[in-house]
Amino acid sequence: EVDLEERLHELDLRSDSDIPDVPPPTDSTPEILKRALSGLSARWKNWWIRGILSLAMISGFFLIIYLGSFMLMLLVLSIQVKCYHEIITIGYRVYHSYDLPWFRSLSWYFLLCVNYFFYGETVADYFATFVQRREQLQFLIRYHRFISFALYLTGFCMFVLSLVKKHYRLQFYMFAWTHVTLLITVTQSHLVIQNLFEGMIWFLVPISSVICNDITAYIFGFFFGRTPLIKLSPKKTWEGFIGGFFSTVVFGFIFSYFLAQHQYFVCPVEYNSETNRFVTECEPSELFQMKKYSLPPLLQAVLGWETVNMYPFQMHSFALSTFASLIGPFGGFFASGFKRAFKIKDFADTIPGHGGIMDRFDCQYLMATFVHVYITSFIRGPNPSKLLKQLLILQPEQQLSVYKTLKSYLVEKGILQPSLRG
């Protein structure tokens, strides 16, 4: 026991000096921006570069929103693949000198396997009527989980066959690295798409809240920041954290009011098999219908109003904005710790002034999980439309059995007349 404790103590005292240095990312700032901002200090030059690129990204995001839900899904998939590539590349750069066999190939193979599983589940869940009309898809959906497992098992066996003497531990490190990366990127991006299917507003408000908090916290910290917030991110300040919180809550409340007025944003995204298009047409639920609320006595005294008209969703937006501004940043702190562990400034140099795609979406993945849990816990109820789609897939004798059981139940409850028995 003493020897074991001494050994563990030695491991605790090890520094990160044994981790190979990762080459610093190159400066990808366009030459035209470099020349235009050449006379500014490094601090203000970074401010302008981040600001210009942020506006460009936000403009592009609005364009994709205009193009519809399908383009948003493609955007999520593209971001997922790029984030996965950035994290896996860090592992490859750190350990490339060991020349591990099949590491990159297996990493991308596992990405394809996991995406096949998750997107297959989505197709089976939301496009049941479309699948029912095509026999080849029926086979794939019926045995989808078995096929997914077989594909993963193939990759697993390939990994075992790739093991090389003297590098076993390192190879298992990288095997774990790949799977944790899959958990962070693929699983979370799948939840983002699940949120999108509930209505574009459940996609836009959380994502915009994180973006708003990131921008306003940076602005407040840049101009007023004096008090360090956390050692993992030396540039983060309490002033920026608090300013970002209040700005995000106000933004979420106003942005939700605007979106709640339009069917395009509030209706669940459904696939119309007749037109082969995604549609967002429905009768808005109670969450998106204006209601009158009585204000607490204190607010009545301050504002001079007794009641206020608002959408119920705006109260939910308060919860989403609060999470985005108070808990969401911890996704960024986690990413900062990860980068410090491997002595890198950014995940990549994809976006000048911002770093890699993962640097901009480190908080979004945490937010996606919260929104999904929030919807399933407080919002979503039984969905007759989805249940009907599942019933249509059953065999005729199974559908008839369900019909007889449901009719018998409704008669017992007095909803149907006993004379309808037959």
TrEMBL record:
<feature type="transmembrane region" description="Helical">
    <location>
        <begin position="313"/>
        <end position="335"/>
    </location>
</feature>
<dbReference type="GO" id="GO:0005789">
    <property type="term" value="C:endoplasmic reticulum membrane"/>
</dbReference>
<keyword id="KW-0472">Membrane</keyword>
<keyword id="KW-0548">Nucleotidyltransferase</keyword>
<dbReference type="InterPro" id="IPR000374">
    <property type="entry name" value="PC_trans"/>
</dbReference>
<comment type="similarity">
    <text>Belongs to the CDS family.</text>
</comment>
<keyword id="KW-1208">Phospholipid metabolism</keyword>
<dbReference type="GO" id="GO:0004605">
    <property type="term" value="F:phosphatidate cytidylyltransferase activity"/>
</dbReference>
<comment type="pathway">
    <text>Phospholipid metabolism; CDP-diacylglycerol biosynthesis; CDP-diacylglycerol from sn-glycerol 3-phosphate: step 3/3.</text>
</comment>
<dbReference type="GO" id="GO:0016024">
    <property type="term" value="P:CDP-diacylglycerol biosynthetic process"/>
</dbReference>
<keyword id="KW-1133">Transmembrane helix</keyword>
<feature type="transmembrane region" description="Helical">
    <location>
        <begin position="100"/>
        <end position="119"/>
    </location>
</feature>
<comment type="pathway">
    <text>Lipid metabolism.</text>
</comment>
<feature type="transmembrane region" description="Helical">
    <location>
        <begin position="139"/>
        <end position="161"/>
    </location>
</feature>
<feature type="transmembrane region" description="Helical">
    <location>
        <begin position="47"/>
        <end position="79"/>
    </location>
</feature>
<dbReference type="Pfam" id="PF01148">
    <property type="entry name" value="CTP_transf_1"/>
</dbReference>
<dbReference type="InterPro" id="IPR016720">
    <property type="entry name" value="PC_Trfase_euk"/>
</dbReference>
<keyword id="KW-0444">Lipid biosynthesis</keyword>
<protein>
    <recommendedName>
        <fullName>Phosphatidate cytidylyltransferase</fullName>
        <ecNumber>2.7.7.41</ecNumber>
    </recommendedName>
</protein>
<keyword id="KW-0808">Transferase</keyword>
<feature type="transmembrane region" description="Helical">
    <location>
        <begin position="237"/>
        <end position="260"/>
    </location>
</feature>
<feature type="transmembrane region" description="Helical">
    <location>
        <begin position="173"/>
        <end position="193"/>
    </location>
</feature>
<keyword id="KW-0443">Lipid metabolism</keyword>
<keyword id="KW-0812">Transmembrane</keyword>
<feature type="transmembrane region" description="Helical">
    <location>
        <begin position="199"/>
        <end position="225"/>
    </location>
</feature>
<keyword id="KW-0594">Phospholipid biosynthesis</keyword>
